[in-house]
Amino acid sequence: MTYEEVFSNNEKFKIIRCIAILEDIEDENKLSEIIEKERLDKNHRRIQAVFEEIKTQIYNPNLKLRITQLINNCEICNIEKYDRNPPKIPYKITETPSKPREIVHIDVFYTLKKQIFMTMIDKFTKFAVAYRINGRNWIQSKTNLLLYLNTYGKIKKIIVDNELGFKAIPMQQFLKDENITIHYTSNSNHTSNADIERLRNTINEHIRLLRQNERSRHETVEKILRIIGFYNNTIHSTTKTKPIDFINGKIHEDKYEDIHDLILKKKENYINNLNKDRKDVDIQEGTNFIKEIRT
């Protein structure tokens, strides 16, 4: 008998194509052990990050519920986790890259011990790096940007805040020679460099968590690099992919369009939600308009 003969009259019947075999975990204790190992190996990752990682390996109908229960009952997480959803109100959709290294966000990060790091994150792949620097001058910025270019390839555009090192004339000439466009974010719009801001928050969060788990409470270069490793080896909530997989060649170019669409869709949903209560300002010709900026 054929499929049409047996099931064609049943509108509720659907065929699901499966491309992977997962291990069924029925024992609650074993399930809890797997969840705990995954989240602790990645330094107390959040619910969605742990779920995205484990769901590709095992199956349990209550997997996400159990992850939520365990993480919400973690004392360290409740003490040290920061609120990832502060109010942000962007006014329009920003440029969305379609492949790696089209846009890279750059920022200078200070630890509590005044160690300085130049952090960079690819807007498309979400792959991040951190370079220890001795100062914020243009020589330090150029040296580490050149190191990035030699390691990962050419960049089309960088986004930075009003960092003086990137405004120096020698640095401007270097960027021109490398055909790199630079965009400076506005002081009044903290969402302009949102990708790097989220990375900074993640680093700070991991520093606090590591202080709870380790004897040493000092921020060291090793700790910062370990934190970047945790981040790059965790499935990103937007791209549904580990950032490190782009570097390892596990993500083929034929997947780029799908990843671009995921990034754009999440951005559009986010902006549409924020703009529900916003209204366009009608400015009549010939009148002056002053908008109060609140930071």
What helical percentage do the residues reach? Answer: 40-55%
Largest sheet: 5 strands, mixed
Structural class, judged by helices and strands?
alpha/beta
Widest β-sheet, arrangement of strands: 5-4-3-6-7
Please identify, by name, the CATH architecture of the largest domain. Answer: 2-Layer Sandwich
Low-confidence stretches: 85-90
- The average pLDDT is 82
Tell me how many strands there are: 7
Strand content: 5-15%
Q: Radius of gyration in whole Å, from Cα?
A: 23 Å
Q: Between the first and last Cα atoms, what is the distance in angstroms?
A: 69 Å
SS field, number of helical segments: 11
Tally of individual domains: 2
The CATH superfamily name of the largest domain is Ribonuclease H-like superfamily/Ribonuclease H
The coarse overall form would be globular
How do the helices and strands follow one another from N- to C-terminus? HEHHEHHEEEHEHEHHHH
Protein name: (Mediterranean fruit fly) hypothetical protein
GO molecular function, one term: nucleic acid binding
Domain Integrase catalytic: 96-251
Which features does this protein show?
globular; 2 domains; 295 residues; two-stranded parallel ribbon; alpha/beta
Q: Would you kindly provide a written description of the structure presented here, covering whatever features stand out?
A:
The chain is α/β, with parallel strands linked by helices. The protein has two domains: 14-80; 103-275, Ribonuclease H-like superfamily/Ribonuclease H (Nucleotidyltransferase, domain 5, 2-Layer Sandwich), CATH 3.30.420. Helices cover 42% and strands 11% of the residues. Strands 5-4-3-6-7 form a five-stranded mixed beta sheet, with helices on both faces. The chain has a two-stranded parallel ribbon with strand order 1-2. α3 (47-54) runs antiparallel to α4 (63-72) and α8 (194-213) crosses α9 (221-232). The protein is globular, with a radius of gyration of 23 Å. The N and C termini lie far apart (69 Å). Mean pLDDT is 82; it is low at 85-90.
